[in-house]
Amino acid sequence: MKPRTVGGDWTWRRRLGRWMIGGMLVLGLPGMQGVLLPEAVAGELLLSMQARVGNPGDTVEVALNLEYDKDALKSATAPSSISMELLFDPEKLRIEEEYFELIMHGANGQVLQDAHGHADYRRGPFRVGEPVLAAEKQVKGQVFAEEGRFRIVIMGLNNNPIAPGRLLTFAVRIHPDHQAGESLLIMGNMHETSVANPQAQPLAFAYEDAIIATGCEGPKAPEGLQAVSGLRNGVELSWQAV
């Protein structure tokens, strides 16, 4: 069986607590196992990851999405908090911990300000999606680079449900010496992931992991970039948006 594709992105689907006895497929990462499944059970929450093709040395953005029936948004089956752990091969992938500029939010979702009254921002490993912001949740992340683990917690001081959509986007860098053409896997750790409703009751869920297909081309220089010399105090750059 081949990994199924969704919207042109390689994905790998597994189900919590529904392993195929006698048909277990062991992946190339220690302690990580997965099973190919064609479709999710109707009404089940789905945590899906999607990534584009990348080349050795590239940084690839990976979207982490939450999928479920929108009609369940106001019911007890809607999620209010999510704790997860993502696994990857640390010899081939690296989480970019300062890739995104993040506007800092307080416990109730308000924008925090610095000493000068400006929006406080920091660089971090992910960009938060609209469903998380709308639910006034906070997102905490911790990278264990040498172990190949990425912990993410989405929660808040409220019981607001999190609507379906993109939870966040994170970035990974493919090692420059990685063999081109060899796909890379980012998968959810089923034993370290939990989803709960507003009443703090656990919810069943499925994972759809990301497979990054690698090409053999090096990073391309931006087109239409010009440097203007002869300036006293600096160099002016201009480019054509694409």
Brief account:
This protein is an all-beta fold.
Described by the principal axes of the CA atoms, the overall outline is: globular
Q: In terms of per-residue confidence, which ranges show pLDDT below 50 for 5 or more consecutive residues?
A: 1-43
SSE order, one letter for each helix or strand: EEEEEEEEEEEHEEEEEEEE
The biggest beta sheet is recorded as: 13 strands, mixed
Q: Which structural class is indicated by helix and strand composition?
A: mainly beta
Terminal Cα span: 38 Å
List the quaternary state of the chains. Answer: single chain
**Strand percentage:** 35-45%
DSSP E strands, number: 19
> Level of helix content?
under 10%
Average pLDDT reading: 77
Total count of helical runs of at least 4 residues? 1
Instruction: Please tell me how large the radius of gyration is.
Output: 20 Å
Question: Can you tag this structure with a few keywords?
Answer:
242 residues; mainly beta; two-stranded antiparallel ribbon; 19 strands; 2% helix; disordered N terminus
Describe the model.
- The protein is an all-beta fold.
- It has one helix spanning 130-134; strands spanning 5-6, 9-15, 25-26, 33-34, 45-51, 59-67, 81-87, 93-95, 100-103, 121-124, 126-128, 138-144, 149-155, 165-174, 184-188, 194-196, 205-212, 226-228, 236-238.
- The strands form 4 sheets. Strands 1, 2, 5, 6, 7, 8, 11, 12, 13, 14, 15, 16 and 17 form a 13-stranded mixed β-sheet that branches. A two-stranded antiparallel sheet has the order 3-4. It has a two-stranded antiparallel sheet with strand order 9-10.
- 27% of the residues are buried.
- Residues 1-43 have low confidence and may be disordered.
